[in-house]
Amino acid sequence: MRAQPASQTFVTSPPSTLAWAMLVLLGGVLPLGILCTLWLTRQSVHGVLPACVIVPLVLAFLLLAMRRRSVALRDGVLDVRATLYRKRVAVTELDLERARVVNLAERTELRPWLKSNGMSMPGFRAGHFRLRGDFGKAFCLLTQRERVLWLPLRDGKQQFLLSLERPQALLDALRAAGA
After folding, report:
1. β-pairing verdict for 7-10 and 69-74
2. Residue partners of 9: CB distance under 8 A and separation at least 6
3. Residues 6+ apart with CB under 8 A from 90
4. 15 DSSP assignment
């Protein structure tokens, strides 16, 4: 039996162009358009000028945050970083018998439904979400719906939903680490 490396990283699927465009539109263009409209109607820059500086800074922060995506397996611990959020769990806490690569178009009960603490836009979800029905909570790093690794925890109420380039590779590594 071959020894597993102490640390492995897994490539996440990149967000779609739509997700990046929506972030720029909703986080930059729309607020700046509203500010310009306020400035033109009031003919005063005193209240608008600070916001015109803050909006691009917030947008830059969000764009950088969206680039922070990583999944690693280190010394028996799964470490997922998704924008401003991070979740670590021991491999022994995962229910690897039920874990699967799923298509969220078919498994609608696993789709994130209600954001409890996360970042969400079309084509991108990161952070903590509630799922439909009795599936409880999920920590998500979702950039696409077709090949999503579903990792339920043994407690039956929490899980991970991860968009990876090669989701089966992480599942195989987790099963090897748990053996």
Report:
1. antiparallel
2. 70, 71, 72, 73
3. 76, 77, 78
4. P
Q: Which residue has the tokens 């799964």?
A: 78
Q: Name which of 175, 156, 4, 176 is nearest 97 in CA terms.
A: 175
DSSP secondary-structure letter at 133?
Answer: T
Question: pTM value?
Answer: 0.84
Q: DSSP strand E in 26-75: where?
A: 69-74
Name the helix (H) or strand (E) containing 139. strand 137-142
For residue 133, which amino acid is it?
G
Query: Read out DSSP for 153-171?
Result: BTTSSEEEEEEBSSHHHHH
Instruction: Tell me the per-residue pLDDT of 82-135, one tens digit each, with 9 for 90 and over.
Output: 999 999 999 999 999 999 999 999 998 899 989 999 999 899 999 999 998 777
pLDDT tens, 24-66? 888 888 787 877 777 777 766 666 777 778 888 888 898 999 9
Q: CA 29, CA 60: separation in Å to the nearest integer?
A: 12
Q: What CA–CA distance (Å, rounded) separates 48 from 129?
A: 34
Burial class (CB in 10 A: 0-12, 13-18, 19+), 169: middle
Residue whose tokens read 């789709």 = 111
